[in-house]
Amino acid sequence: LMSTRPYNFSAGPAILPPVVFERTSEAVRRLDVPGDTSLESQLSILEISHRSKTYDAIHQEAMELCHAVLGIPRTHAILFLQGGASLQFAMVPMNLRIEGKAACYVDTGAWSKKAIAESKQLGPTEVIASSADTRYDRIPAFPSADAYAGASYVHITTNNTIFGTEYAELPQLEGDVPLVADMSSNIGDRPMLLERVALGYAGAQKNLGPSGLTLVFLHRDLLAREPASPVPTMLRYGTHAENDSLYNTPNTFGVLVLLNVLRWIRDEGGTQAIGARNQRKAAKLYELLDTSSLYQAHAQPGSRSLMNVTWTLAGKDEDESAARTKRFLAEAEAAGMSGLKGHRSVGGCRASIYNAFPEEGVDALCAFMREFERKA
Ligand SMILES: *Cc1c(COP(=O)(O)O)cnc(C)c1O
């Protein structure tokens, strides 16, 4: 079955490893946790209580592997929330804004802009760097400390899913200003210095599991912050940290899939091995783009994403380029490659090649692209 599937280049919800599909479907039928003799273990993950011992073991192991596999420091609380990364755009300023201190943002495209818009609704917000003037084709140079001195926090988007840019390395802030990072589309794509991140968040559906689960990790010191205005119970990080993300019913199914994904990363050799494979996969595509006269990479060297590779097709005018893109996408679809259409705000094409995307799928895409160019 798996060998005849289409290659899935979807930007999200996105591909997961075959073993995760297998383990998860087994758990939907009947959990059968080794060594667990409770009745819940004979039931489906979809129908057991989030207060049961059987579920609790899944929940705790998933949290443990967030530290052990993703490298989230033990100083940080792990939260399993809902509402997607988009709710974090609001929860971050609600919880971390300090009266009289601006919230600072780096603007690297669509998702950053949405985060900035939420912060602006709540208080003073400054954009301290942006790549808007070059159509978000790069990560702007990180500003020096005086640009954010005294800020409530600095927010970045570590991978720009739509434009295909990614921080090569996480910035190290000076002073005691916390760094907040939207890591939705590149968490776990390589080893990262997560001790630099005071609060990180990721909608699970790009690299970690299904939609409907959001991973948040935050340094426990941040829980002591007095928010600038009162925050409703469900929107307070403290509520979830104090209750181990069991204040209300979590996305129990999503947590099980997350656990299966984290076990898979561990068994593959961790983020080190995954990162090496991701580098290889992305390098093949960028090499092709840089040596082609038909395809043009959108992202500039030094800012290129390992996860989302974006390009346009050249033409003597916009019409020819649009027609070629349309034909490219139709032929790719016919060749069993799904999800290559670029985001409507950028146009062109985008190959999302997340952790679980197989290297032979990248090879197949490269071969298809070379052949298409030869015929063009
Ligand atoms: C997909 C994505 C989001 C939005 O996530 P939702 O879970 O749909 O709210 C936010 N930020 C980035 C970087 C993304 O890739």
Query: Percent of residues in helical segments?
Result: 25-40%
How many helix segments? 9
Give the overall average pLDDT.
97
Overall, the morphology is globular
- What pattern of helices and strands is seen along the backbone? EHHEHEHEEEEEEEHHHEEHEEH
> Largest sheet, described in full?
7 strands, mixed
- Detail the poorly predicted runs: none
Q: How many β-strand runs? A: 14
Q: List each distinct ligand once.
A: pyridoxal-5'-phosphate
Task: Give the class from helix and strand content and strand pairing.
Answer: alpha/beta
Q: How far do the termini sit from each other?
A: 34 Å
Radius of gyration, taken over Cα atoms and rounded to an integer in Å = 21 Å
Q: How would you describe this structure to a colleague?
A:
The protein has 376 residues and is an alpha/beta fold. The protein is 35% helix and 15% strand. The protein has a seven-stranded mixed beta sheet with strand order 2-10-9-8-5-3-4, with helices on both faces. α4 (110-122) links the parallel β3 (103-107) and β4 (125-130). The two termini are 34 Å apart. The chain binds pyridoxal-5'-phosphate (PLP). Residues 12, 84-86, 111, 157, 161, 182, 184-185, 203, 206 line the site of pyridoxal-5'-phosphate.
Features:
3-stranded antiparallel beta sheet, 376 residues, binds pyridoxal-5'-phosphate
Q: What is the topology?
A:
Elements: E1 7-8, H1 18-29, H2 53-68, E2 76-81, H3 84-96, E3 103-107, H4 110-122, E4 125-130, E5 153-157, E6 159-160, E7 165-166, E8 179-182, E9 199-203, E10 214-219, H5 237-242, H6 252-268, H7 270-290, E11 295-297, E12 308-313, H8 318-334, E13 337-338, E14 349-352, H9 359-375
Parallel strand pairs: 1-13, 3-4, 3-5, 5-8, 8-9
Antiparallel strand pairs: 2-10, 6-7, 9-10, 11-12, 12-14
Helix pairs in contact: 1-6, 2-6, 3-4, 6-7, 7-9
Bound molecules: pyridoxal-5'-phosphate.
Pyridoxal-5'-phosphate is lined by residues 12, 84-86, 111, 157, 161, 182, 184-185, 203, 206.
